[in-house]
Amino acid sequence: MTRVWKWNRPVTVREVLEDLQQERSIAYTTVMTVLDNLHQKGWVRREAEGRAYRYEAVSTRAAYAAALMNDAWSQSDNPAAALVAFFGMMSDEQRQALRDAVRIVQGPDSRERREEREDREAPQEENPGSVADTGGR
Asked: Per-residue pLDDT for the chain (137 aa), expressed as one digit of tens each?
């Protein structure tokens, strides 16, 4: 997937092979099998071009990472504990990115909604001079 995302356009097995061979020796059939497996799993779509296929990522790298995290989290028997452990592994930069992401997801009016909810849920003050206020006197 890394190579498909890197090219950011539909790629052939041959293109991915040549790119990978700059770093290590790898067989054409290996690359073809991996791309076919990714297609079967729904991570890439392919379109015939002559006798070959052009493969294109179905989602972004960020969406793929999010799906992996969601899958791992949903398999936990204690999701809250899993999140606490995960947050504990994060660097300061990663925690700041998390705070930024939460702010983005909540949207600009999230503070107003939170304050309204807190107002609705807060216990109502009793009227001054009531029996409760005077201690029953």
From this structure: 999 999 989 999 999 999 999 999 999 999 999 999 999 999 999 999 999 999 999 999 999 899 888 998 889 999 999 989 999 999 999 999 999 999 998 887 666 666 666 677 766 555 555 444 444 44
The DSSP string of 21-63 is HTTS---HHHHHHHHHHHHHHTSEEEEEETTEEEEEESS-HHH
Q: Give the 3-state secondary structure of residue 11.
A: strand
Let me know: does 133 contact 127? Beta carbons within 8 Å.
yes
pTM summary value: 0.58
In a 10 Å sphere around its CB, with 0-12 CB exposed, 13-18 middle and 19+ buried, how is residue 92 labelled?
Answer: exposed
A 10 A CB-CB count for 58 gives 15
Q: How far apart are CA 68 and CA 46, in angstroms?
A: 22
